Amino acid sequence: MHPILCLVGEVIVTTLVTGFTHPGARLRLLGLIPVALCVLQCVPLCMKSMVRTPWAALVGGYSITYLFHYLDVAVLSDWSFEHNSPVSGLVRPSEDANTDDRAQSRKPNDTIVHRLLFGVKMASSFRFVGTPYQTRNTPPVIAADRKYFLQRTFAVIVVSYVVLDFINSNNDPMIASKYLTLEKVPFLTRLDQITAEEVVIRAFAVLAAAVGLNCVQGGIYNIFALLAVSTGVSNPSEWPPFYGSPRDAYTLRKFWNVFWHQTNARKFSSIAHYTVHGCMKLPRGSIGARYLRMLVAFLSSGIMHLLGDLAAGVQLRDSGAMRFFLAQALGMIIEDVAIRAYRRLPPGTKIPLVAEKGLGFLWVAIFLTWSVPAYMYPMMWRANQGLNDSTIPFSFFGPGAERIKAVGCLLSAGVVSLSGILIT
């Protein structure tokens, strides 16, 4: 079976099970079996079927994400059609949920169509936007007007495509094979060998990876947003920005909890709360429970991305996913200790707020430059061989025929956007 069909199968199972079964029903737990089987079928075939590592990683990554998503909405959080909300107690309403939001919990009409729509909502809602259970730190909606939303979304898609094309066209296989390999991942143990050139290349590689990932994930998100809003399936208010503001990324905690996308936050939070408070029976509110939840969340993320690495053709022994995500937990603990110690200093010894944030950005940049290669370098095995491994199918910097196809890709998105504007 093709990996994409496996992914579609997971979406269908999630839709039907959450829409047509009661919370706590045995069928919900049994539903994990076909979803897990789809993942087991999908991951080994991704690289063979999708050819390029970014494409394989995307399909395999979303397949694994849906396994975690199903575990959350159908088993752990136990979303209920009757209550239009989770009933397990793991998920609590957001503190800023207003009365209108809470009104969504009223019992809906019990029809096949309504249950199917609820199941689709559960299968497609990662941040639960517009509900009392919206993921914390979801960015506010920027474009509420439909016409402006379509114009802005189309512009973001174009910019994302062009930036990805520019990054890929400037890849140098010789530099990559010399500096961006598994042997270059360790840093602190090679201080006597590292040159200034390697540090600069490492830093720019990490920056390019972050920008590229932002464009890939944000670009795909905006393509779906463009299609959904232009066809009238959903409203602009249901599509807040995928990422937060980079101005908030001056601590590791804010980098991951505010700036970075929060599409997996609910899944990892549910798993962490269930593990720490449900299985270990640790009381809420203690520092130990808080840090243990953080560790479980990053461990879950590491497992998810490790499987994604396997889908992209990375060998298990080469994957640095677990090392990278557990390093983020360690970095946050170090950061918390440093911030607490700084706050205890006398007021006269503290530096201005602007300088504090400047040091914070520097700390985040240094930490990510040190830690990201463990996850990123193994994924570059095809690029290091000089093979075409771009996320985008056609390049503006390629031959004439390929440029025409690249223009055609963007024009297609433009036609969808324009049709939505004209309908308005």
From TrEMBL:
Top-level taxon of the source organism: Eukaryota
Question: In what pathway does it function?
Answer: Secondary metabolite biosynthesis
**Membrane topology according to the record:** Multi-pass membrane protein
Q: Residues in domain Wax synthase?
A: 239-326
Q: Which UniProt keywords apply?
A: Membrane, Transferase, Transmembrane, Transmembrane helix
Keyword tRNA processing among UniProt keywords? no
Region of interest: Disordered? 86-106
For this protein, the record's InterPro entries field holds: Wax_synthase (IPR044851), Wax_synthase_dom (IPR032805)
Compositional bias, Basic and acidic residues, is annotated for: 93-106
GO (cellular component) term, any one:
membrane
Q: Which GO terms describe its biological process?
A: lipid metabolic process
The entry's family comment says:
Belongs to the wax synthase family.
By what name is this protein known?
Wax synthase domain-containing protein
Question: What organism does this protein naturally occur in?
Answer: Trematosphaeria pertusa
Recall the taxonomic lineage recorded for the source organism.
Answer: Eukaryota, Fungi, Dikarya, Ascomycota, Pezizomycotina
